[in-house]
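Long-time lurker, first post. I've been practising inverse folding by hand and with some scripts of my own, and I keep getting stuck on stretches where the structure tokens seem ambiguous. Below is the full token string for one chain I'm working on. Before anyone asks, I'm not after the true native sequence, just a reasonable design that respects the backbone. If someone could post their per-position residues I'd love to compare against what I wrote down in my notebook.
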């Protein structure tokens, strides 16, 4: 079995390495880390050069390449500076849910802005009372006509407060057994009334990425914001 990278993959690897070498200035990295500031200009330039969403289909502003190419880019960026590299790579973190399971409408609405560096995505999974055990959730979504009404709290959310939307895990069938069979994923735009964010405070690292608590109080979104199949969010 041949494990050698192909010519195009080596070129992508080299391009990512050269980009990081040219843009990830040491003094800038230290300053961004001190000020806890997201490297917005670097992220936007990386997106302009096609390093964000490289594995998205071209119809969604991607390069139509694979996950391996995406990994090669992540590796080169983080090898130069893990703080800036992680921030750039995880800008599209939650958009993977839309890419894999979202409707065509959701893909066309949200994937191009992510790939083009116009939107950050957030994955609202973890809860204060359950940590990373996402089989048990207290955040609920109730169907009312053509809308979902969401209530609950998420915490330690990457890009919280900066993201334009949150892929939110909600309990949509509290009576389901086991409980994870009643969990659904719903996309919630950050500007929806009732959605609030609050920084979680000092962290030991990854200072360039915001980490926040996200709360939902009677947040209403269209039923079409459901990602994938109801009850299959887990």
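-- Answer (accepted) --
I ran through it position by position. Result:
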């Amino acid at each position: 079995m041949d494990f050698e990278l192909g010519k195009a993959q080596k070129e992508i690897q080299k391009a990512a390495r050269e980009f990081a070498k040219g843009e990830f200035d040491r003094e800038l990295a230290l300053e961004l880390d001190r000020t806890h500031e997201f490297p917005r200009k670097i992220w936007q330039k990386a997106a302009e050069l096609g390093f964000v969403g490289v594995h998205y289909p071209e119809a969604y502003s991607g390069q139509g390449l694979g996950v391996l190419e995406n990994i090669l880019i992540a590796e080169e960026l983080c090898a130069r500076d893990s703080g800036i590299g992680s921030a750039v790579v995880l800008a599209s973190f939650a958009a993977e849910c839309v890419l894999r399971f979202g409707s065509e409408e959701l893909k066309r609405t949200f994937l191009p802005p992510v790939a083009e560096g116009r939107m950050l995505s957030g994955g609202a999974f973890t809860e204060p009372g359950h940590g990373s055990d996402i089989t048990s959730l207290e955040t609920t979504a109730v169907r009312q006509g053509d809308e979902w009404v969401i209530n609950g709290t998420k915490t330690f959310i990457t890009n919280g407060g900066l993201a334009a939307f949150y892929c939110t895990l909600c309990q949509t069938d509290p009576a389901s057994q086991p409980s994870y069979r009643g969990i659904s994923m719903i996309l919630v735009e950050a500007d929806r009334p009732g959605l609030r964010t609050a920084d979680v405070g000092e962290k030991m690292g990854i200072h360039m990425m915001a980490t926040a608590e996200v709360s939902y109080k009677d947040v209403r979104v269209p039923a079409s914001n459901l990602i994938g199949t109801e009850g299959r969010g887990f």
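A couple of notes from the structure itself: The first strand starts at residue 121 and ends at 124. The helical segments are 7-23, 26-35, 40-48, 67-80, 82-89, 95-101, 104-115. Happy to go over any region you disagree with.
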